[in-house]
Design goal:
Chain lengths: 309, 692
Amino acid sequence: MQGLSFQDLILRLQQFWSARGCMLEYPMDLEVGAGTMHPSTFLRVLGPEPWRVAYVQPSRRPADGRYGDNPFRLGKHYQFQVILKPSPLDVQDLYLDSLRALGLDLSRHDIRFEEDNWESPTLGAWGVGWQVLLDGMEITQFTYFQQAGGIDLKPVSAEITYGLERLTMFLARKSSVFDIEWGAGASYGPVRKQEEYEFSKYYFEQASVGLHWKLFEQYEEEARRCLGLDEPLVLPAYDWTLKCSHVFNTLDARGAISVTERVGVIKRVRDLALGCARTYLEARRKLGFPLLSDVRREAISLDVAGSGR
Amino acid sequence: MMQEYFFELLTEEIPAWMLPHAGLRDQLLALCAEELGVEDESSVSIGATSRRMYFALHSLPEKQTDRTEEVKGPPKRAAYDAEGKPTAALNGFLKKNNAAVADLLESSDDYIRVKRVIAGKSTANILEVRIPQIIEGLRWPKMMHWGDETFTFIRPVHSVISLLNGEVLTLHLLGTQSGRVTVGHRTLSSGPITVSSFADYKEKLRQSKVVISESERESMMRERCGQLAAEVNGTPNEDSSIWSQWRYLTEYPGVVRATFRDEYLSLPEEVLITVMRVHQKQLPIMAGKHLTSSFLAVMDNEGDPDGNAAIGNAFVTNARFADARFFYETDRRRKLAERDQELSHLQFQEKLGDYLVKSLRIEKLARLIGQSAGIDPAAAAVAGRLSKADLVTEMVKEFTDLQGQVGGIYLREEGQPPEVWKAVYDHYLPVSLDGALPRTIEGAIVSLADKADTLAGFFLVGIRPSGSKDPFGLRRAAQGAVQILLNDQLWTLRADVTSLVSSALSQYDRTGGPEVESALLDFVAERVRTVLETERFGLAYDEIAAAMASGWTASLPDLAQRAQAVREIRREKDFLSLLDSAKRISNITAGSEESLLRPELFEHPSEKRLNDLTAIVADQIEELTGDRRYLEALRSFAGLAPELETFFNDVMVMVEDESVKRNRLALLRRVGGLASKIADVTKIVVDRSDYR
């Protein structure tokens, strides 16, 4: 256990969740703030189709950058994301088993589930759940999604988000994130510190405010255009929405958004996210919810016909 | 035979602050009392851990007692025919109620009545219907859906135990069917636990490392905290809010001691303590008055054999402190006075502008308050101007409950004098009825200015608290202002409430007219009553009303003294005669016109005596009132009572001769007005038996 590297941890989690019926996905290839924004979460939790997926997501949060000076905080960190839809009743036990799979003897640790509800104003999404505290340290965010893109979710998905650096640090007893072993003998610092420094410098001091506002407008316009087409292109629209969101985070870190402006800009991103959610659900419906079993599909289409929706 | 019912609901972790679900206990007590005839409070045992709620109902009957009730039938005249035989109407009624003519009751009215016995339902029957209703009907602050289910609860439900005298009483609720099986501690036990009774449950769960009683968990934790702190020669920095959280955070009440890096002790102590207490729910350990680098944290485990919990807690606290230091260092690159631009972007209220203009108003108001109280207002004005600057610091953005304190700390470090930094530090005080007041008079001035400005602004734009709704904390603001104005220890801030209110209103461009001013004064008056009724002043509502009737806005400490004098005098045995006289005067003079007192019109010696005595008492009262010796002044007033009684016995006031009558009324008005600057004693409500 003491020797588990960053990549070993990822491999073990992938193996564990793969063995429990999760499809292994890959990271979203755009800048996102969290694994939740990956279409494999935000879009897939909508509608009736079942979905079990696990993936790593590099998550960029410009305002969290600390120039590589803070041993605990990063502008970009890696999340391991699991979505179980519908949420199974034994999801907490599954989760605890995943910790055991990492070599933890839980009877010799303190493990607690402390209330921590999640809400994303930019995604029009919220859920209830906990932060999981291992020996007082937050290692996982655990959420039962109730709404995404302003749409009530049924069934409800369980989202498990592991903070990979924290977990590795703690398991390896390192007091700085830059000291953990990534794998193959390389440690995290030499691999990532330059990036932390340069992006902190960029987001806090150098990012061109004018350019980013311009980008925001253009991305927003393109997202709207994709959604407004006769045959809406929701997945491209969602890409542009994610870009808007990242540009917003950049401007925010740069201190370029006043308190009064902030609410308005968040609303613009949310409107896009809401549009994407609605359009995606409609597109899946037209496709006949391809991931549903035939039995479920029949039950649901009857349900839909019956309710007159 | 008496029965016992036992119930357990096993869920996923319920937020600690929502437990215990007080509503449940009340509903169970009501169920026992109303439907099972068990009134005893001890018939309900109830408790919760982080992931289970349980209760036992004791001394239940086997069934409800049978009830009889009278059933009203047809009118008597329609019950028998001319020959005195039962009519079809009567027969139908009897048949329906399974009764015969012989069962008819004597009734005094015109209707036929019969007694009907309603068999009591069995306890099992009642419980199987009512328990699911009660549990499913619990309303939590935030409900959730899970899986594919249609119902909601606070967290997903795993299992239900429902036992009546050890037998499973089958219930269906929240998607589960009840049984007799539960589980123990998540990580310290394994396998199912089969339960036969409440006593068995307690015992078996204890073996499975679950201490089900919250009070027992709390006392185990408290004891452990004391021990662990003593080991490092310290004491836990306790506050009661910690325990109400800790007792519901775990199933086993463990505590661990950890240590953060000494280097963080150079950060302001307030910041460290807030991070630990509020953000980490940890208990700092103090050595005397100073913070040590050791602290205590809750843990859902019996022990920490490998030191994991100690390391983990240290890790996370160090991380938090590293962040705090980042904010601290970032903030200190710029003085607080250089943050006007950001303040102008921070909205105070939509219609009332930003925090920069609020700061300017506070500055002006602080100066006015200081001047009229005869205090050099320079420091308070500077503090007022800077009071809101910390709202745009990184530290307060992250740790909002440190507003004010952070500003004070930063100003201290910028080299501002104590009168300035302490005033900013304390200007949100007091935060509750028994909360601490600002340490300095400058702090009191800034706090008062801030609160008066907030109240004036919100009243001007028509936002006022209604019922239980007070989203902007206006009641608390007014209450805080009143507490400051009433204070007479350390410092006294003399201020006239009327002029304070009108100054605060005049800082705004918009005007609200006299209606706003009087509404705001009424609002403050209401808070004055609230504060004076608290334990600290211990005044009764009628004592306060009596004193306020003589005016209240000029000086609140004076008002409190006058009310206190009323409180004293009412306990004295002569009070009843004083009250009777005052009431009599007030009744008899009500509605009469003012007129000049003319001694030459006195006819009776009693009139003259009363007049002479009144003159003497008036002088006394004036002198005593000037010295604020209100109790003695009231006593002097009470001394007139015997003479007044003689007067009323000897002299008829409402005589025919209009000029004599008016003169007597003038005399009485003079007597009645003697204490008018102190209190209107007629407002006092007495229980006459107290004076016998």
